[in-house]
Design goal:
The complex is a heterotrimer. Chain A is of the alpha+beta class. Chain A has helices spanning about 10, 20-30, 35-50, 100-115, 135-145, 175-185, 190-195, 215-220, 235-245, 245-250, 280-285, 320-325, 330-345, 355-360, 365-370; strands spanning about 55, 70, 70-75, 85-90, 95-100, 115-120, 125-130, 160-165, 205, 220-225, 230-235, 260-265, 265-270, 290, 295-300, 315-320. In chain A, the strands form 5 sheets. In chain A, strands 8-9-10-15-16 form a 5-stranded mixed sheet. In chain A, strands 2-4-7-6 form a 4-stranded antiparallel sheet. In chain A, strands 1-3 form a two-stranded antiparallel ribbon. In chain A, α8 (about 215-220) links the parallel β9 (about 205) and β10. Chain C is of the alpha+beta class. Chain C is about 25% helix and about 20% strand. In chain C, the strands form 3 sheets. Chain C has a 5-stranded antiparallel sheet, covered by helices on one side. Classes of the chains: A alpha+beta, B mainly alpha, C alpha+beta. The interface between A and C is large, with 134 and 115 residues. Bound molecules: protoporphyrin IX containing FE (3 copies) and iron/sulfur cluster (4 copies). One iron/sulfur cluster binds next to loops of chain C.
Chain lengths: ~400, ~80, ~350
């Protein structure tokens, strides 16, 4: 197929050493006429410095309100191939592991029924087939389901959960992130495919504080690995590291809680004061390993700036014994999430993320509603501001001498 | 819930969407709240409304739309 | 839509079970990994308690790829890693090999495809980015073009480990920030700078007025009437150009080629190592869109990277380096102008002021 439009600006982006998305679009255009038109429209965007997509619409497969993002060109006469250019989100396998035969099947679908363009992967974690016409959606869906793949989340629904590589290939993993991610994704198919929330909700599972899924910044619920017992130390290997680098400068002095000491007798750690930050383990992976009583800290509430400014997740459950709950099909976790969703359903408004709702109603009220005790682990310090909303007081004739609990 | 109530519930949901077409977009959550009130006499639960919505969307009598949030709508 | 009534339609099968995609060595050593060793910026080995080893070879990808690209990867996986491969959260590809002898021939074949080998260790990691003009309606800038221009220029930092610590760069083309930009060492963020236009004819016909009003984080959108129908008016001074209203109401387009552009943010991180996770902070408040190669953006990022490389101690992330030397010095070294836009005046923003007499003089 010859080139449909001159694209001098985009051609500039074929130069240089990094792999070029323009070259990829041209490769895709060899098998898809739609993509030829996409090149034309994007060239026009480069010329005019603005996009040409319209949003929204009624696009989906029957029964699902999720997994397809509708996209329409605002220049359909000029570029008919991108008149409808929807995205199909496909729920990725845990840890982004694949075998070539499955990948080839997904590619075949995108080449036969769409623009031959893909995202591996979208920011939420899904594989995305770009450039799909409404008429092709059901066929694509049925083919995906036939070899065991399903659509991911979009809209006011549970978004596709994702996790780090975890125990499959990382010695730092404190719990089986891939397993719990797979398990709860299966359990919450309804919440993913049939949007009923106020807005999106995301889970991300990271096996340790390095947080390779950036869950603390972009998941409404962040599940981050930690441990209860002592860091496992191989003193021999510590000595080997000490020969190559200044342990004081690069390891012990950088410990945020100053709980490490290195001397002739070896490395000592006051584990009761270790905040499981992972620094020392990252620097000396052959000498140090997290403890064996692994689990996770559950944090809540991070989100992008929309609508009321960006937030990071904050601690809700300091230690969650994942392995223990796994024996029970993660029932505790599912119930816990259920309570949070119920609260959100009851008190939240349209397009309000859970973090924003908590900000609005107050953290104390939220904790009470979902039945969690306030804990000092939840704060970096108690409040400094004295405007306390004490909720009750005693009259002179009652509760003599007893101080009320606020 | 009896089959009769269920049929009434589904009918009421579709009517609600139809009545407000082009005026108000109903999120599934809004529909649940409306129906809980409307059917408070016939012990219809949240889950009943949810499964009614599911049947309506599975059968194509209602579809999902998206405009800054997911909502229910009549098929074009 | 094809008629599927009568046949039982299968739905909700969920994601494919990952067990089918795990290399046998990974299956056998699941949860038993003891340590890893970085052998080069492009490969590492994980060693198990059982003594088994798995080698990972890492390759950069542009994220937006053709089917042919994926098939090339599949061919390599079939040839060298029994068909097993994975992707990383930052859009790299990893081949998983149990045979050390396969590493070199695999790397040679990857080079023949002109793909970059690297991304492990103290490098500029692959840029996570969003859709931009290729695929999104609210984009204030293009994602793929800026990313490609940056990575072309920073290529040497991806394939060689020349930096004090890992530098994670992210690009988001609007404040929706599909890409976890706000906690990156260097974040490039598309911004609008002019309030949305009010297309009243569209607003009264296409938009739900209450949700349009509610979409605005600063209450800049107020109820009004137009031709006797409910509509909205705008308090322009209160608008922070987030584009949220356009997402809810197509009658309020915010894109404006004359005023759209990007801002640059620095010093954020998500890892908990040493210091707590933190947001990126504003370094450059506005650079105009300059396609196809955004030279000023590339130059600004290079300036930050060079200053960091020269000034930071080994192991220090960008944010930790700036905390140590102080923001005044950061602005002095980089030559970026500190303006009133750098002072947070949004809700609770006063928390970022310096409430002390501790000033590096
Ligand atoms: C009212 C309309 C829309 C809104 C409010 C919206 C909002 C968003 C938001 C907030 C994200 C990031 C979060 C996430 O999905 O997890 C996102 C991502 C995305 N949107 Fe939209 N979007 C809209 C329409 C569209 C349309 C029409 C398309 C495509 C035709 C589209 C394609 C995408 C894609 C592909 C992503 C993923 C980006 C990535 O993974 O980097 N969106 N959108
Ligand atoms: C060691 C502790 C405290 C000291 C030395 C202190 C001192 C003061 C002083 C000197 C004033 C100015 C009064 C005036 O000039 O009219 C003041 C006002 C005030 N203090 Fe405190 N205070 C203390 C603790 C607190 C606490 C614990 C609370 C609240 C629980 C509190 C709440 C207030 C309030 C609300 C005002 C403003 C009253 C008004 O102007 O109407 N203070 N305080
Ligand atoms: C709204 C609340 C508060 C107000 C308006 C307030 C006001 C004041 C004022 C006007 C002074 C006198 C400063 C001076 O002229 O030397 C003062 C001193 C002081 N306040 Fe407060 N205060 C408040 C809350 C508190 C709280 C909650 C604490 C402790 C928990 C506190 C502890 C003190 C102390 C220790 C001093 C003496 C500081 C010094 O002289 O070094 N205040 N406060
Ligand atoms: S988050 Fe921790 S456990 Fe997971 S892959 Fe990263 S370093 Fe490993
Ligand atoms: S993990 Fe962090 S807090 Fe714990 S000992 Fe190591 S450096 Fe210190
Ligand atoms: S960051 Fe904004 S413009 Fe870019 S893809 Fe996400 S929603 Fe669209
Ligand atoms: S762009 Fe954002 S701040 Fe401005 S009017 Fe729209 S919603 Fe409000």
């Amino acid at each position: 197929m010859g080139k449909k439009y001159e694209t001098p600006l985009l051609d500039e982006l074929k130069k240089g050493k990094w792999p070029s998305f323009v070259a990829e679009m041209e490769r895709a255009a060899e098998t898809s006429e739609m993509t030829g038109d996409l090149l034309g429209q994007v060239e026009q965007s480069y010329k005019e410095k603005m996009g040409h997509w319209k949003h929204g619409g009624m696009v989906g497969v029957k029964g699902y309100g999720s997994g397809i993002v509708g996209r329409f060109s605002d220049l359909p006469e000029k570029y008919p191939g991108v008149k409808e250019f929807h995205t199909v989100r496909i729920n990725q396998p845990s840890g982004f592991f694949y075998k070539s035969d499955s990948l080839r099947k997904i590619v075949d679908i995108g080449e036969k029924h769409a623009s031959s363009l893909f995202n591996f992967h979208g920011s939420t974690g899904d594989i995305q087939i770009l450039g799909v016409k409404t008429s092709e959606l059901e066929t694509i869906f049925q083919q995906l389901v036939s070899f065991g793949f399903d659509l991911g989340g979009s809209g006011s629904a549970l978004r596709t959960p994702s996790c780090c590589v975890g125990m499959a290939r990382c010695e730092f993993a404190n719990y089986d992130a891939m397993h719990i991610c797979y398990n709860i994704t299966q359990a919450f198919q309804d919440e993913m495919h049939r949007p009923i929330f106020n807005y999106k909700f995301k889970f991300k599972f990271s096996g340790c504080g390095n947080d390779c899924t950036a869950s603390i910044a972009r998941a409404d619920m962040s599940i981050i690995g930690t441990w209860k017992d002592n860091i496992r130390i191989d003193q021999g290997m510590v000595k080997e590291y000490a020969k190559k680098m200044n342990l004081h400068k690069y390891v012990t002095s950088k410990c945020p809680t100053k709980c490490m000491n290195y001397s002739d007798t070896g490395l000592e750690i006051d584990d009761s004061n270790c905040s499981k930050c992972m620094h020392c383990i990252n620097v000396m992976p052959k000498a140090l390993r997290p403890g064996i009583k692994g689990g996770a800290t559950i944090l809540l509430g991070s989100k992008a700036p929309m609508v009321s400014g960006p937030r990071l997740s904050m601690v809700l459950v300091p230690f969650y014994d994942v392995a223990e709950d796994a024996k029970n099909g993660y029932q505790w976790f599912k119930d816990f999430v259920g309570k949070i969703w119920e609260f959100w359903d009851e008190y939240g408004v349209n397009r309000e993320r859970i973090g924003e709702l908590i900000q609005r109603v107050g953290i104390g009220n939220f904790l009470e509603a979902i039945g969690l005790e306030p804990l000092p682990e939840m704060v970096s310090s108690p409040r400094g501001n004295p405007f306390v909303l004490y909720e009750d007081y005693v009259e002179a004739d009652e509760g003599q001498g007893e101080s009320p609990q606020g | 819930m009896t089959d009769e109530t269920k049929a009434q519930l589904e009918e009421a949901i579709v009517n609600l969407i139809r009545e407000f077409v082009n005026r108000k977009r109903f999120k599934p959550g809004d529909v649940v709240k409306e129906m809980e009130v409307k059917f408070s006499a016939s012990d219809v639960t949240k889950d009943d409304v949810k499964s009614a919505i599911r049947e309506l969307t599975d059968s194509g009598r209602l579809i999902y739309g998206y405009a800054g949030g997911s909502f229910l709508s009549l098929p074009e | 839509m094809p008629d599927v009534s009568g046949t039982k339609r299968i739905t909700d099968v969920g994601p494919h079970d990952y067990h089918d995609f795990l290399h046998p060595v990974i299956k056998n050593n699941y949860g038993k990994w003891k340590y890893h060793e970085i052998l080069s910026t492009a490969h590492m080995v994980h060693v198990s308690e059982t003594g088994d080893k798995i080698y990972s070879v890492r390759v950069g990808s542009p994220r937006l790829v053709s089917g042919s690209f994926i098939k090339d990867l599949c061919d390599l996986a079939d040839k060298y890693s029994e068909g097993y491969l994975r992707f990383t959260t930052r859009n790299n590809v990893e081949f998983l090999l149990d045979k050390e002898d396969n590493i070199e021939p695999l790397m040679n074949d990857i080079k023949k495809l002109n793909l970059p080998l690297g991304g492990i260790g103290n490098v500029v990691a692959n840029i996570v980015h969003t859709q931009g003009w290729i695929h999104c309606h609210t984009a204030a800038s293009d994602a793929s073009g800026v990313t490609k221009s940056l990575m072309d220029d920073l290529y040497e930092y991806y394939i060689d480990a020349k930096l004090p610590a890992k530098v994670r760069i992210a690009f988001a083309c609007c404040l929706n920030m599909c890409g976890a930009v706000h906690c990156s060492d260097i974040a490039v963020l598309g911004i609008h700078r002019r309030p949305p236009k009010l297309l009243s004819d569209k607003i009264i016909n296409l938009c739900e007025i209450p949700s349009t009003i509610a979409s605005c984080p600063t209450n800049a959108i107020r109820p009004d009437t137009y031709n006797g129908k409910p509509s909205v008016k705008l308090i322009e001074e209160a608008c922070v150009f987030c584009g949220n209203c356009f997402t809810v109401c197509p009658g309020m387009p915010i894109s404006d080629p004359l005023n759209d552009g990007v801002s640059i943010w620095v010093g954020g991180k998500v890892s908990n190592a040493r210091t707590k996770p933190s947001f990126s902070k504003l370094a450059v408040s506005y650079l105009e869109n300059d396609p196809p190669r955004w030279p000023k953006v590339v130059e600004a990022v290079k300036t930050i990277l060079d200053a960091y490389k020269n000034g930071a101690e080994k192991g220090e992330r960008v944010g930790e380096w700036i905390e140590r030397i102080g923001w005044p010095k950061f602005f002095k070294i980089t030559g970026f102008k500190f303006t009133k836009y750098h002072i947070d005046d949004f809700r609770l923003g006063e928390a970022t002021m310096n409430y002390s007499a501790q000033v590096r003089q």
